[in-house]
Amino acid sequence: MDNKVKAYLQAFGVSEATQRFLSKPQRMFIGGAWLEASDGGSAEVVEPSTEGVLTRIPMGTADDLDRAVRAARAQFDGGAWSQLKPLERERLIHRLADLIETHGDELAQIEAIDMGKSVVQARAVDIQGTVDTLRYFAGWASKIHGRTVEPSLPGNYLAYTRKEAVGVVGAIVPWNFPLQTMAWKLGAALATGCTVVVKPAELTSLSALRFAELVQAAGIPDGVVNIVTGRGSVVGQAMTCHPGIDKLSFTGSTPVGCTVGKTAMDQMKRLTLELGGKSPVIVFADADIEAAAQAVANGVFFNSGQVCDAGTRAYIERSVYPAFLEALARYTATLKIAPGLDPDCFISPMVSQQQQQRVLDYIALGKAEGAQVHYGGEPLDGPGFYVQPTIFAHCRNDMRIVSEEIFGPVLVTQPFDTQEQALALANDSLFGLAAAIYSNDLGRVHGLIPQLRAGTVYVNAHSTLDPAMPFGGYKQSGYGKDLGAEQLEFLLETKAVWITLP
Ligand code: NAP
Ligand code: MG
After folding, report:
1. Residue 479's beta-bridge partner residues?
2. Ligand 1 nearest atom to the CA of residue 255, by list position
């Protein structure tokens, strides 16, 4: 850890437990062993607000991935895990949730320091979300079953279905909600009796490695959960084509998801793809304009806009457009731009210099495309990969800043005249992850919901999440669902059984 990072951690009184974890050499977790990369490779981890070096993580190889898959297979194919009764799995998942709760502050600090995000939001959203997700799926372990069927066939048969765990799950995770996204994939997989190999994002692997220590402490058998850190092009690619992986669960960008999906299909792997978004927000004149402006700003600037279902395209009824823009700017000005460990931080730095540059390039592009900067849009002094929250006005759907995912704190807006026009503009996108409506006219809201081509529709709020509610996109935002009872179907095979009775 370099001195800049040390000073940062000291300035905000980071706990001894967190410091201890961050100061020790990091190892991958494979078959219950803590390992370096088989070729000794490792990479620097950069802290986003100081730009200092935090630590190093192993850069796993295809061999490391293979070892992890073998460990996971051994547990699935007759190992101790496969012998556990559902209530025993349930108890172990609850024990893991308890440990995460106990170490919640430490995990929130690790996440904030590694990814750059607000520590307060990490505790309230990422860590609490992880605990809640594990608890929700723990309860499912004992509630998965098939059905008996009354056949019409002549003769005497017993016909029933069995729900069977799909096998070894390969989970590929992005960097915006590292621990929570991993928990979305793990909770349901463990509940159904699968085993798991996780490839965290290269930029944010640390919380997964601390999580692995808690997996071990919870008494989950070695090999049930494996964490292989490294590059997407190496470990991720190896996972995608490994014949020992039965199901691939990928969260990330649409282009990478597309490639991964095609490769996985060569072996007919089961597949879930949670991909990008450019979620529309429709604000009607009858909405509470002040409240709507705050909700829209929170819905796009939370996690500095590095949120897959962020409401990034706002269509506002023309009569209230000027007032809405003003309310948006007034509220956005109150959001503190600060390092993640600052308890008042709302706008944290981007995860990396590359992501900062990508967002700044889009802001420059928006100006070049003729969109008006209504708020922000100026570079900020370093150190730290900060981007000012930025609001564009009078955009058009044919601008690239409106059609492409930016994945930063950038909101594009434009006025509309009729409900039909708003709906057409909202649906005019390759993505379909989420959409939001702000209105107090229940009849109108109810009529619009079925017409929006999106996996989630929020009304008078944004990004409300609960493990009991399914999450996943329409169109190029993905395939399949995480969370909710729906996710279980993507981790189970259904076997039809016919017994001919005498
Ligand atoms: P990304 O570049 O697609 O990477 C996602 C993951 O895939 C990372 O772990 C990455 O590893 C890995 N990867 C990269 N290339 C690979 C390959 N050829 N084969 C297998 N794996 C590969 O996305 P990101 O930039 O990390 O995350 C941002 C994107 O995720 C945004 O588009 C966002 O909308 C989307 N997202 C979607 C959801 C959802 O639920 N729909 C949730 C969160 C984020 P490395 O880190 O080593 O490159
Ligand atoms: Mg990092």
Report:
1. 273
2. 3
Instruction: Give, in order, the Cα–Cα distances in Å from 296 to each of 42, 160, 428.
Output: 41, 49, 20
Distance of CA 365 to the CA centre of its chain: 27
Residue 255 has a CB neighbour count (10 Å cut-off) of 11
Contact 427, 453 (CB under 8 A): yes
DSSP state of 232: I
Q: Which ligand is nearest to the CA of 235?
A: 1
Query: In this structure, are residues 292 and 299 in contact, taking their beta carbons and an 8 Å threshold?
Result: no
Stated pTM of the model: 0.97
Cβ distance 146 to 161 under 8 Å? Answer: yes
Q: Could you report the per-residue pLDDT of 164-220, keeping only the tens digit for each?
A: 999 999 999 999 999 999 999 999 999 999 999 999 999 999 999 999 999 999 999
Q: Which residues, 6 or more positions from 104, have their beta carbon under 8 angstroms from its beta carbon?
A: 123, 127, 128, 131
Q: Residues 6 or more apart from 448 whose CB is under 8 A from it?
A: 282, 419, 423, 437
Which of the listed residues 204, 308, 309, 407 should we mutate to test ligand 1's pocket, taking the one with most ligand atoms within 8 A of CB?
Answer: 308
Q: What is the DSSP letter of 451?
A: G
For residue 227, give the ligand nearest its CA: 1
Please check whether residue 373 is in contact with residue 272, taking contact to mean a CB–CB distance below 8 angstroms: no
Q: 257: helix, coil or strand?
A: helix
In the predicted model, is pLDDT for residue 498 greater than 90? yes
Q: What is the mean pLDDT of the chain?
A: 98
Cα(127)–Cα(129) distance, rounded to whole angstroms?
5
Place of tokens 């048969």: 157
The alpha carbon of 45 and the centre of ligand 2 are apart by a number of angstroms equal to: 5
Q: Is residue 379 reached through a cis peptide bond, with omega within 30 degrees of 0 on the bond before it?
A: no
In the chain, the amino acid numbered 61 is T
